[in-house]
Design a protein that fits this description.
The protein is α+β, with helices and mostly antiparallel strands and 184 residues long. It is 34% helix and 10% strand. The protein contains six helices and four strands. The strands form two sheets. Strands 1-2 form a two-stranded antiparallel sheet. A two-stranded antiparallel sheet has the order 3-4. It is elongated.
Length: 184
């Protein structure tokens, strides 16, 4: 509420006419007022920030949010790696990468070589995440890079971050943007 009042006071938002979700999230990126203050960006260079009607502003704002929260251009969201059978042992359920690739490699993980995928991710902290399908008693384990954890700053659900990453990859593939690392 204080952020909304400050935005109104500075003339950056009219609190009397502002609309949003029941929780107060605003615009295309569904930013809370605090995120509006910290991450809103003018993506179309028209000297105004319009998160309701400007897709370039919304995309620039989400991009700024992700960069501030650790997004590293050129890294995949998930490492192309095969984990050992005891992968669940490496899951800590956290929202920050706390392992190194050498630790996982020593435990039996290995890289699945893919064309056009940089190995730069091996120099950054990683984490093992679990995607549990409780009704079927199944679990999928993946090696997540800092980019995955940047997505969890937007929404803390592993499933949300995974869905966003997979949708983005599918769109990139269909549009001809190249491999999993986003390079042509």
């Amino acid at each position: 509420m204080a952020d909304l009042i400050e935005l109104d006071y500075k003339g950056e938002l009219n609190a009397k006419t502002a609309t949003g979700s029941f929780a107060g999230a605003v615009g295309l990126p569904q930013f809370m007022p605090g995120s509006l203050r910290r991450f809103a960006a003018d993506g179309d260079n028209d000297k105004t920030i319009d998160l309701h009607g400007s897709v370039p502003d919304a995309l620039a704002s989400v991009g700024k949010f992700l960069r501030v929260h650790g997004w590293l251009p050129g890294l995949p969201v998930f490492a192309p790696a095969q984990l050992p059978a005891n992968a669940s042992k490496w899951v800590d359920g956290g929202l920050k990468p706390a392992l190194t690739w050498p630790q996982l490699e020593q435990a039996g993980a290995y890289v699945i070589r893919q064309q056009n995928v940089s190995m730069d991710w091996t120099r950054h902290p990683v984490g093992v995440i679990d995607l549990l399908d409780e009704p079927r008693g199944l679990a999928e384990y993946r090696v997540a890079t800092p980019n995955f954890f940047a997505l969890t700053e937007y929404n803390r659900s592993y499933f949300y971050a995974t869905s966003v990453a997979e949708l983005a990859q599918e769109l990139a593939d269909r549009m001809g943007y190249g491999g999993p690392d986003g390079k042509p």
